Amino acid sequence: MKQPSILATTLSPLLLLASCGNGAGGDNPSAEETFAITEHGNFDRPWAAAFLPGTSLLFITEKAGALKFINTANGTRGAVTGTPKVDFGGQGGLGDVAFLPAEAASEVGTRTIYLSWAEAGEDDTRGAVVGKGMLSCPRVDTCTIEGLSVIWRQHKVTGRGHYSHRIAFSPDGQYLFVSSGERQKMEPAQDTSNNLGSVVRLNLDGTAASANAFTGEAGKAQDIWSYGHRNLLGLAFDLEGRLWDVEHGPAGGDELNLVEKGANYGWPRVSDGDHYDGTEIPNNATSTAYHQSAITWTPVIAPGSLAFYRGDLFPGFKGNALIAGLSSNAIVRVAIDGDTAREIARYAMDGRIRGVIEGPDGALWAIEDGQGGRLLELRPR
Hints:
The chain is mainly β. It has one domain: Neuraminidase (6 Propeller). The protein has helices at about 5-10, 30-35, and strands at about 35-45, 45-50, 55-60, 65-70, 75-80, 95-100, 110-120, 125-140, 140-155, 165-170, 175-180, 200-205, 225, 230-235, 245-250, 255-260, 295, 305-310, 320-325, 330-335, 340-350, 355-360, 365-370, 370-380. Strand 15 (about 245-250) and strand 16 form a beta hairpin. The protein is globular and about 55 Å long. The relative contact order is 0.16. Mean pLDDT is about 95; it is low at about 10-25.
């Protein structure tokens, strides 16, 4: 007998520090002091996680190319077929996973899924891409993606670093924003004829949206929203509907930025860090030509993801930014005040944190970096 669709059985009941720049060091409690932590198994180099809206299904990408899921209501785990072939190596592989929030209340059945990954090109080049398909889950342990096709491509260059390829939907559900790293090439971030080192703004079908930074200008990349970025591994809208990113600096100078149309964030002309060989870079504050960061961190936190807390489970967290810390082995909590921000707490974890997201009931879910990275559920202690 045919089993019921997993989508039908998992619908939510709701539907049925050391800082510089503008930052200030906050408290440094351990995670164990703040959270009740429950482990939910291990994954191989997990990179991103997202709940299917309106369900308890949490989908997790693994860099080598697998997409897996866990039903957080009962612990059932499964795998997804129909995933793309990825160029796995260095920082490249399968990247972000995202679902349309507007489909949370849709009829049970297939749902739109977006994935990002590194794609090989000619002459040893590669670049990030975003694909769109339809997800169905006919069994409790099996989902499949049908009709997956590439809808956006990053300019391809050599190397295997700084793809970025984080995905965020505008609050009105009309636009798709993607972070496009400068691929460790630096200068292309100031060359607006390509989409490297930028945040791009797309229609949901992947075409360049109208009224972007250089719409209608000859020789300019039509998808650019902002530029002068380095390696943007967090991209999220706050509760006021404003877009923010977190990005890696070089040797120092990690940044939290309010992302605005047409703004130039200065890389590689300015940075609050220096080149790895010790060559100095002028600080952000030395020039008024570039958009200033809300916070910069030296030593770095090595941000892995960015989310804004919207729930009520953690008193005092609402509206705060939560940043996954890789080299900092932490979850960094930041308070936003207008276009400024300050670090208010850094929760020490047992390892490198690749991502942190909010679950349907306000609990936090974190994924550790690397082979055997754990999935962790965090609730108030």
